[in-house]
What we know:
Layout: E1 3-10, H1 14-25, E2 30-33, H2 41-44, H3 62-68, H4 126-129, H5 131-135, H6 145-159, H7 184-196, E3 204-205, H8 243-249, E4 253-256, E5 259-267, E6 272-280, E7 286-296, H9 300-309, E8 337-343, E9 359-361, E10 378-389, H10 401-408, E11 412-424, E12 433-441, E13 447-452, H11 457-477, E14 480-486, E15 517-518, E16 521-526, H12 541-560
Parallel strand pairs: 1-2, 1-7, 2-4, 7-16
Antiparallel strand pairs: 3-9, 5-6, 6-7, 8-11, 8-14, 9-10, 10-11, 12-13, 15-16
Helix pairs in contact: 1-8, 1-12, 6-12, 7-11
Amino acid sequence: MRETFDAIVIGSGIAGGWAAKELSEKGLSVLVLEAGRTIDPARDYLMNAPAFEMDYRYLGDQRKLSARQAVQRKCYACDEGAAQFFVDDVDNPYTTPEGRPFDWIRGRQLGGKSIMWGRQCYRWSDLDFEANAKDGHGTDWPIRYRDIASWYDYVEGYAGISGEKLGLAHLPDGPFLPPMEMTCSERWFKDGLTKAYQGKRTLTVGRVANLSQAHQGRAVCHYCGDCHRGCTTASYFNSVQTTLVDALATGRCRIRPFSVVQSVAWDDAKGKVTGVRVIDAQTMEALEFTSRIVFVCASALESTRILLNSKSRAHPNGLGGNNEALGRYLMDHTMQTGASGNVPGFEDQRTFGSRPNGIYLPRFRNVTEAHPDFLRGYAYQGGGYRSVAGWQRGVTSEGFGADFKRALKVPQYGSWRMSLGGFGECLPHAENRVTIDPTVVDKWGIPVLRIDMQWRDNERAIMKDAQVAAAEMLEAAGCTDVETYDNKTAPGLTIHEMGTARMGKEPKTSVLNKWNQLWDAKNVFVTDGACMASSACQNPSITYMALTARAADYAVRAIQRKEL
């Protein structure tokens, strides 16, 4: 006998956690399907574990990483303490065309990537929601800022976002906790930037989902800097310690781990989705669960993979695939281009602890004046830091004996340096797409994605300008020894992949309507990164949270109206 629920949520990360919380708190019985294992923060989070207790001093077993996590290890967070939160690339393959790499960074466990995310939270504005309509790239969003503003308020108030209010129309403020403190070098750069550009360019500390004061029963951040390894005090937002806790507290939510979703089940006779087909990751047993509604929140590309694999007589190209939009318009943010420079003075000052945050310099290109070389824009993240040579310098230093060892205990501080790294918008191109590979399957026999994406002329122009402008601003503020860089990373490594099941105003050109509903199946909602019709240049996770809470509210009201 199949188990039946009011709602099934696929995925337990940022979007899935919010869907579970909202649906269960509003009275629905909810099943959360998670492909990976459960997580116990007390057992699995390695916050503050000293390096000497780790087999490889946090560097990790390089041979094993190369063999099993060759893609995942490209992410800075995939170290010995956090590699457990990243997928095994051998068990979870995907393919790409020759010469067009895509680095797909994934997490498969309770909480998904909400455990290891960068926690930066920046709202979109109408500059972003209107961009497609104004410049003709992509389809017009079916919503505007006014449609989601109150939902931003709602999720930010719950998650706890620390930051500074700026009063910028293109980067709306929220109900922030107090901002984290800038370093002396950052304050110096901010003053120099303001003077050099007459206040037209703004520097602020990052808006981040780390608590600057106790919030919702969670402790204030203690600046240990190991966020990607998990936080036992719940001082940053992750679904394991927040939304999923609340969902389970209702008594109406059940979480089933090791549940690899094969497809969403469409019933031709009923003309609707009736549930979800699952492969048990441990037993390989095929299971099916039924529900009234389904929220697909498996992460952008995994959600689209599920839809593409959900074929039926009515939907031979996958659920939502009755037009050419499903699988197309894949986007990511450009990253790892910018500049750094020395900050003069402040030799008598140093930082204390490890602030889990940097600075943010909001977008200034194509805001009020059109740039001749590219559309849309970019923002900067980075920070001011002082180089420190610790005891490790003894590896290459001359010396021997007790005096040498005592000397190594005294840190040697270098000069302060300021770094700016650009995060640029990616235009929605139909040719940037995912399809189902016709021959390759994963460990559980499910066909995998073929990802075909590349940076195009507009993205390359953005990256170049971000590099040049960063150097100009550093020099204008008074930095010396300014150096530019371009690490030429492939798409995917920013880990802001989005699109492939976009929202829109009509079913001919989009997959989802303004409520994140599938046009082709009104009882299915997609609220993670797959739904995005454009990318803006802001970190997207807070927008996924707001869209998910909004869609869940709509779904419950539609059920109450007997529309679903």
